[in-house]
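=== RUN LOG ===
request id: a7f3
mode: sequence -> structure
chains: 1
length: 499
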Amino acid sequence: MFSSDKLLITNDLIDLENGVKFPEKLTDAFIFWGFFMKTSHQSSPQRDLFREHLNQMINPAHPLVRMAKLIDWEQAEAITSHWFSDTTGRQAKSGRLIVGLFLLKQMKNVSDEELPALWVENPYWQYFCGEEYFQHEFPIHPTSMSKWRKKMTETDAEALLSLTITLALSSKTIKRSDMKRVNADTTVQEKAVEYPTDTRLCTKAIIQLGKLSKQHGVKLKQNYKFTAKKLHFKINNYHRAQQFKRAKKAQAKLKTCLGRLSRDITRQLEKQPKLTPVFQEFMKKTERLLTQSRTSKNKLYSLHAPEVECIAKGKLKKRYEFGVKASAIATQKNNFILGASALHGSPYDGHTLKPALDQVERLSGVRPKRCFVDNGYKGHAEEQTDIHIARKKRTYATRYLKRLMKQRNAIEALFGHAKRDTHLGRNYLKGQHGDKLNVLLSAVGYNLRMILRIIWLFLCCYLSGALMKIRRWVQKMIINVDNSQPKWFRSNQKTVFQG
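=== RESULT ===
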């Protein structure tokens, strides 16, 4: 049973205020919150005597409170306006709550499971999301975060990144002139997959095909489940003992079992053509797995994430990384991210520079005049921006350019912080759409952390300046003691203050 202020959900849906009974077919839609009506902007309710107002609990000088006052929440709510239905479902939560939860999740680097517990116990987080009174329960179901994320498009994520740029300008984290000189580079956003081996992939394919066949009533001669597990165990032992010929022979036998199972299912699907769409996608993955070799292109590295690519960036500790290439452009002076995107197909870096600069101009309204890149961007087609490539004589023509080129390396530290402090280090979102969203949302989280830090430093400097003024005033008052006081009194006062 689920209860709220307006609805009571059992087998049917009943409006407690009007006594209207909804049809049973809409029950699942309401329970799982698949559809929501657009929110209505209501006036502030009358003060509740039995609940604590957040303004009385929080410090108005806290950086999160100051940031909440600087954000244009109307622009943020406009991003989520198309997520709602005009006619279907009950009234949804406010757009500020949804956007605020996404911003907090990326800024604080927490998961969907950790977010509700931290939100309930933190009044500053609740104020940031637009609450007026302290809440003892999370306002939405935890699974709603994933449902809202499915409705988010790449354009919406870019709008959130543009929102952080506007916030940075209003908080004086960056200046508009800082956007004219930028650094650009690429990195690898790793996917949440195991290290791929043929043995592991074949074993998983056999087990999943057996489960799928049993679920839909497809009769097989043999499912090879236990045979695959035994062979997997043997292959691991053979490699550990450096018996590579036996391991190779067992791998060939495992692949043979997968081929037999695949052909058996194909024959059974000819008798049951209605089940063909169910098996079609997984059978394509199986065929791709059986035909690929060591030198093949477009290999399959994961069954649940077929979009994963193998990328070698020349690192000593990580020779190969499995995920997708990601591009980022940041200001050279502040290392503030102005544009980010996921690049599927592992394109050449030089071919990605022009679209990346176009994205920066689209989000910030400023076209960079100078862009500093590494040696991998040779052969770019950018003409509007002056591109400075590392290890070229033209780049080091003057001392000024030489000094600016040294600042290009700061973007490497940006990637390190983004992978550790945001979700760029390991992507858990599904599909290519999930790759694009994770890159952009990680950039949003990185920018918000920087803005929050700048607000905190400004507050510290402001307080320290105020304390210095008070100290000087007290010092002046003590030193300018009335001449009518005894000489020993004036000397003691100076000694005490100086001590």
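=== NOTES ===
Residues 49-151 form one domain.
The chain has three domains: 49-151, 177-192+308-451, 198-291.
=== END ===
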